[in-house]
Amino acid sequence: MGKVVPLRTATKQPVLLSVVDAVATFLARDWTDNTRRNFTSDLKRFNQAFGDRPVGDLNAVDLQSYLNGLTTRRGGVERPVSPQTYNRHFGTVSNVFAWLERNDEVERNPMLKVERRKLGERLPRPMTKGQLRAFFGRIDDLRDKALFSLLHGSGLRICEALGLDIEEVDLEAREFLVVGKGNRERVGYLAADTVKLLRRYLRERGRPRQGPLFESRHGTRLSYARAYGLFRTYSDGLEKDGISLTIHQLRHSFGSERAGEMDALLLRDLMGHRSLRTTLQYAQVNGESAKKAFKIFDRNHE
Questions:
Q1: What pLDDT does residue 77 have?
Q2: Measuring CA to CA, how many Å separate 272 from each of 34, 35, 150, 233, 261?
Q3: 113 CB-side CA count, 13 A
Q4: Sign of the CA dihedral with 235 first, then 238, 244, and 250 last
Q5: CATH classification of 16-113 is 3.90.550.10, yes or no?
Q6: What whole-number distance in Å separates Cα of residue 124 and Cα of residue 255?
Q7: Domains 16-113 and 129-300 share a fold
Q8: If we measure between CA atoms, which residue out of 70, 85, 73 comes closest to residue 38?
Q9: pLDDT one-digit tens code per residue, 37-69
Q10: Residues facing residue 77 across a β-bridge
C-alpha cells in the first residue's frame, strides 16, 4: 500500500474562489434589503466583467480599468458614468475585497491602489414646474399617482416610500413613520393632495389595515425596479438639455420648493439628512425663495 499524503502537504492545487462565487457569498451576508439591492445592482456588472476568473488574480490595474470603463445610456448615447456613480461602484467593490481580505481569500486588498474620483460640489436638480405638471398630468393610475405624489409632497427617497406599511401611515393625522438611511426612524408628513390619493387608492384595494402601502398587481410589495420603470415611462420626453429625469428629482423638488420658506433644521429633519450642509444646498438652488425672504424682511424694516 502506498504512503498516504496528509492533506496539508498534498501537491494538489487548491480550488481558487471565482469572482461569481465570491460575489454570491458576499451578497448572502446579513444585509438590509436596501443595501443588498444596491450591492446586487452594482455587482451584476462586476460579474459580467470578470465572471469565472479567480478573485485572487485580479489586481489594481484590472479593477481600475473596469471602473474607468463603466458607462450609462443617457439621451440615447452611451456615456461614461458620473463621478458619483463611479465612486458608488468603487465603494461596492472595495467592500467586497475588504471582506475577502478579512477571510484570507486574497492576500491584500487591490482596491487600496485604485483611485477614487474627486467630486466638485453637486447641487440638487429639482424638476421644473412645467416638468412636474406634465409628469403628473400623464398619470391616470391611482397607485402610481399616489406613490409619486408622496415622493414629491413629502420628500421621501423611493426606497423609503416602497418600504412603508399601511399601519405606519396615519391619514387622519397626515403623518407617517419611516425608516431612512442608517436605519434611522423619522416622522414624515403628508400633503393634502397625497392624503386624498392614498384614501382613494386604499379604498380601491378594499381598505386593507396592514401590509405594504404600495402593492404590485400580484399582491406583493411594489418593487424598486418596477417603480423606476414606471417613472421612466411617465417622464419620457421631459428631459432638459438631453439629460433624462431621475426619480430622485421628485425629492429634490420637495427640498428646493421649501428652502428659504422654512427653517433649515426643520427641513433637514423632514428629509432625513444627516448633515445640515446637504440641506443647505437646496437654498443655493432656489434663488426665488431667497429673493422673496429678502423682500419680506426689507418691507418689514422700512
A1: 76
A2: 16, 17, 15, 28, 18
A3: 10
A4: negative
A5: no
A6: 9
A7: no
A8: 85
A9: 889 989 999 999 998 999 999 999 999 999 999
A10: 74
Which amino acid is it at 5?
Answer: V
129-300, superfamily in CATH? Answer: Intergrase catalytic core (1.10.443.10)
Largest CA distance in the chain: 108
How far apart are alpha carbons 300 and 297 in whole angstroms? 5
Can you tell me which residue has the cell 498516504? Answer: 4
Strand 185-189's sheet: what is its strand order? Answer: 169-170, 175-179, 185-189
* Cβ(26)–Cβ(106) below 8 Å: no
Q: Output the CA angle 35-39-43, nearest 5 degrees.
A: 175
Contacts of 20 (CB under 8 A, 6+ apart): 47, 51, 52
Question: Which residue, 168, 207, 206, is CA-closest to 186?
Answer: 168
pTM: 0.57
Cα separation, 199 vs 205, in Å, equals 10
| Residue 138 DSSP SS3 | coil
Grid cell listed for 301: 424694516
Rounded CA-CA distance 280/209 in Å is 38
- Rounded CA-CA distance 79/265 in Å is 37
**Cα–Cα distance between 252 and 271 in angstroms, integer?**
10
pLDDT tens digits, one per residue of 161-178:
998 999 999 999 988 887
Domain boundaries, the chain: 16-113, 129-300
